[in-house]
Amino acid sequence: MRRYEKPYTLNPKPDTMSNAQIRQGVQFISTALEREKRGPASVYVHCRRGRVRCVMMCTAFLMVTFKLTPIDAEALVLR
Q: In Å, how far are 9, 31, 44, 71 from 41, measured between CA atoms?
């Protein structure tokens, strides 16, 4: 997997989420995972239909946390 050092600007579709909502979601996931000290942690990410927003949020989290390219992060989510 390639790591990408330049920050990405996320441009969600207008009917999904704003950049501010994506940043807030990524921060929420990060905080939730950091609070779990007893072992492997998990966060359940979902949206009404489970097609666009949850995939976008998980992809954004992987891009920010592991500095992955959008293609590599999406491939991990869809795997």
A: 27, 11, 10, 25
26 contacts 57 by C-beta, under 8 angstroms: yes
Confidence of residue 3 (pLDDT cuts 50, 70, 90): low
Average pLDDT over residues 55-59: 89
CA distance 7 to 74: 16
List CB contacts of 26: < 8 A, sequence separation 6 or more.
57, 60, 61, 64, 65
- pTM for the full predicted model: 0.72
pLDDT score, position 54: 84
Sign of the CA dihedral with 64 first, then 66, 70, and 73 last? negative
Q: Are 55 and 19 in contact (CB under 8 A)?
A: no
